[in-house]
Every structure is written in structure tokens, then in C-alpha cells.
């Protein structure tokens, strides 16, 4: 899978699935701008240093306390602007209100002629 145009990605859930997704996207040149786990969330609009965060998470069992990015409220992560959202958290985290908000954002982008996934991935 090739990633083009450097999409901004968010990863909700930085456990086994989310950290691997972030690692692979980062290795292919994609920009992960925010991540979260059960302890907190991190953001850097210039792109997070995913290998460093993975190392920190393995050593500490969490991302909270990582100082090379801005700590943000986990709830606000899903309201951050992004091109790609990877929901890799435990089930039940995405509720109807959050999904409605995501759908409205998607429709806004779609009406501006942007194509959420096909535009960025071959």
C-alpha cells in the first residue's frame, strides 16, 4: 500500500492494533498527528515520532507522560481534523453522537470534492 499526499491520521487506541497501524503508516511516510490510549492522548500537528512513542509505551505501559508531544484530552481526539481515522480502541468507545459528528465531517469533505480514502491510498 502506498500512501500519497501525506494524509493526516489519528489513531484511537495505541495498543497492539493501533501501535502497529501507526508504525506501518509512519514507515510508509504517512503523518500521524494524534494518538490515544486508555491513559491519555498525544498530538503534534507536525507529526508524532511514532518509533519513540512505541518505545516509551513499551517501557512505561502507557503513553501518558510522554513529553515530546502535546497532551490532549482523550475525548477531544475524535474531534480533531484528520484525513484518516483509525478506530483501534476497545469496543463501545465510538458512540452514536461521535459517529454522527464523524459522518457530518465526512459529508463536508465530500461536498468539497475530497475523497476520504481513495485519494490517499493506491
Name its key features.
single chain; 122 residues; alpha/beta; Rossmann fold; five-stranded mixed beta sheet; 4 helices; 19% strand
Give a description of the structure.
There is one protein chain. With 122 residues, this protein is α/β, with parallel strands linked by helices. It has a domain at 8-91: 3-Layer(aba) Sandwich (Rossmann fold), CATH 3.40.50. Helices cover 35% and strands 19% of the residues. It contains four helices and five strands; from the N terminus they run βαββαβαβα. It has helices spanning 16-27, 50-60, 74-77, 96-111; strands at residues 8-12, 31-37, 40-43, 70-72, 84-87. The chain has a five-stranded mixed sheet. A hairpin with a 2-residue loop joins β2 (31-37) and β3. The longest helix is centred in the C-terminal third of the chain and has 16 residues, at 96-111. The radius of gyration is 14 Å and the shape is globular.
Amino acid at each position: 500500500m502506498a500512501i500519497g499526499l501525506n494524509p493526516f491520521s489519528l489513531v484511537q487506541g495505541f495498543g497492539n492494533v493501533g501501535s502497529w497501524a501507526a508504525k506501518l503508516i509512519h514507515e510508509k511516510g504517512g503523518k500521524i498527528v494524534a494518538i490515544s490510549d486508555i491513559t491519555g492522548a498525544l498530538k503534534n500537528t507536525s507529526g508524532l515520532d511514532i518509533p519513540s512513542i512505541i518505545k516509551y509505551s513499551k517501557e512505561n505501559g502507557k503513553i501518558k507522560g510522554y513529553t515530546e508531544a502535546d497532551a490532549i484530552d482523550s475525548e477531544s481526539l475524535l474531534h480533531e481534523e484528520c484525513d484518516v481515522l483509525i478506530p483501534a480502541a476497545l469496543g463501545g468507545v465510538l458512540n452514536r453522537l461521535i459517529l454522527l459528528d464523524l459522518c457530518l465531517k465526512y459529508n463536508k469533505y465530500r461536498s468539497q470534492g475530497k475523497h476520504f480514502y481513495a485519494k490517499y491510498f493506491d
